[in-house]
Specification:
With 157 residues, this protein is of the alpha+beta class. The protein is 27% helix and 15% strand. It is built from 3 helices and 5 strands, in the order αααβββββ. A 5-stranded antiparallel sheet has the order 4-3-2-1-5, with helices on both faces. A hairpin with a 2-residue loop joins strand 2 and strand 3. Helix 2 packs across helix 3. The longest helix is centred in the N-terminal third of the chain and has 18 residues. It is globular and about 45 Å long. The protein starts with a helix and ends with a strand.
């Protein structure tokens, strides 16, 4: 379990490092204001929805939003509760997998993962005390037929 968590953390740390790279706004004079360009993506005005005919990538934002919404409602929610929320949000509960939120010694896990198969791919989310936010991505289905590896991976289905 520890090796899987470390490997996952290392893989996702590269993604986190890239998210810190962004263009900055130049210093403005006191009389100037920053404006948004027409090409800027506006924030959604309503809640996202599952796109049943969309791809896994099309539904990545919705999947992440479900996890964030669940954790915002109950910051102490464990991975089972998050997995149930994902299954209840329209994703196929039979393909939802998750890792334990507690170690064998009863300590809180550094991170937990919840995954679901959608459109022939895996949508995976990672969250927990050491993750600054929900980290999610789309990856291929494993040769084993699931999305997560390890002896402690659980399934809703």
């Amino acid at each position: 379990m520890k090796i899987r968590v470390i490997a996952t953390a290392l893989a996702l740390s590269g993604a986190l490092a890239l998210t810190g790279c962004s263009a900055s706004t130049p210093d403005l004079k006191p009389t100037e204001t920053a404006t948004t360009s027409a090409s800027a993506t506006p924030k959604p005005t309503k809640d996202p929805v599952l796109l049943p005919n969309g791809s896994a990538k099309d539904n990545l934002y919705y999947f992440t939003w479900i996890i964030e919404k669940t954790l915002a409602a109950d910051p102490a929610a464990d991975s089972y509760a998050v997995a149930q929320a994902v299954g209840a949000a329209g994703f196929d509960p039979a393909t939802v997998q998750f890792t334990f939120s507690r170690t064998a010694a009863g300590l809180a896990a550094d991170t937990s993962e919840v995954a679901v198969q959608f459109g022939g791919q895996c949508v995976i989310g990672q969250f927990g005390p050491v993750a600054p936010k929900v980290i999610s991505r789309v990856l291929p289905v494993l040769a084993t037929g699931g999305c997560l590896l390890g002896t402690e991976v659980q399934s809703l289905g």
